[in-house]
Design brief:
Helices cover 37% and strands 16% of the residues. It is an alpha/beta fold. It has a seven-stranded parallel beta sheet with strand order 3-2-1-4-5-6-11, sandwiched between helices. A two-stranded parallel sheet has the order 7-10. A two-stranded parallel ribbon has the order 8-13. Helix 2 packs parallel to helix 3, helix 4 crosses helix 7 and helix 7 crosses helix 9. The two termini are 36 Å apart.
């Protein structure tokens, strides 16, 4: 197949690009910087026109805004990359004959909850990041037609080898350096006097290799006419920060240190993955196995 990956030089994009190439697909990918690698298309998706050199069968939009701080000064970048760029890429892909377009959304679009959220759960438009993703999902729904399916996959807790930013990488570096991990209890744990035993924030952490496997399977499902409009892309269960960093410590050979936060947390990020498991039957890498590779391949000097 001919596959387009917008944002193909980032963490998830690089892993997906290599996996597609290994399967014999022709891959074109965008990046803002120069590259001599075959298939590279230099493009700042928020500002440049996306010119595709040949037909496209499947497209993945993985581009992400650089920063969500200093809003509203950064609004043009946030909405330009996360929403307008996505629509621009979808139109270009459809005009190139694309049959399935996949958009990287986020589990942050769901309203705060301690329960597992399925794809019908209420949404939260209260942050620039979530709002930009929701706008993109809704706009892309208008681009979809009989020629091209569109699916937004909502990613939870992505982590794995070569990651140099985001929460998982910062936690790994912190455990490596012996810095304490802050665990926020729930209000109920505080009221019951169990704050010291809290596991802290719980997420449906997802190993990047499993994410790539699900995206490839999702592409096949779409070409068979079976892709949903929205789907959670997440690990099989919620894992607390205590358990997650405990696995890090085991892989690094150090004992993590913890401090209990004074303020109660107001949510977790747990996905209901029933739809994905019914449609894709994904492989789920055991946490200890995924963490071993994450720790072994970590470049701590590059983690921000």
């Amino acid at each position: 197949m001919h596959i387009l990956i917008v944002g193909g030089t980032g963490f998830l994009g690089s892993h997906l690009r290599r996996a597609c190439a290994a399967l014999g697909h022709t891959v074109h990918f965008t990046g803002r910087g120069p590259s001599d690698e075959a298939g590279h298309l230099r493009c700042d998706i928020a500002r440049d026109a996306l010119v595709l050199p040949e037909a496209v069968d499947v497209a993945y939009y993985l581009a992400q805004a650089d920063s969500y701080a200093d809003f509203p000064d950064t609004a043009a970048n946030i909405f330009g990359v996360n929403a307008l760029g996505a629509v621009k890429a979808a139109v270009a892909a459809r005009n190139a004959g694309c049959r399935a377009f996949f958009y990287a959304s986020t589990g942050n679009v769901y309203a705060p909850s301690f329960l597992a959220c399925d794809e019908r759960a209420p949404l939260d438009r209260g942050t620039p990041y979530a709002l930009s993703k929701i706008h993109a999902e809704e706009a892309l729904g208008l681009v979809a037609d009989a020629r091209m399916q569109v699916c937004a996959f909502r990613v939870f807790g992505l982590f794995g080898s070569t990651q140099t930013s985001k929460l998982a990488a910062r936690l790994l570096k912190g455990v490596h350096e012996g810095r304490p991990v802050a665990l926020a209890p729930t209000a109920a744990e505080i009221a019951a006097g169990r704050a010291d035993a809290t596991g802290g924030l719980t997420l449906s952490w997802l190993c990047v290799h499993d994410a790539v496997g699900q995206l490839l399977a999702l592409g096949e499902a779409a070409l068979a006419g079976e892709a949903p409009r929205v789907m959670n892309l997440a690990g099989p269960r919620g894992v607390s920060l205590r358990e997650f960093t405990g696995a890090m410590g085991k892989s690094l050979g150090v004992a993590p240190r913890y401090v209990v936060a004074q303020a109660a947390r107001t949510r977790d990020f747990i996905a209901d993955v029933g739809l994905a498991h019914k449609l894709l039957h994904p492989r789920c890498t055991p946490l200890d196995e995924a963490m071993e590779e994450f720790a072994r391949c970590a470049d701590f000097a590059r983690i921000a």
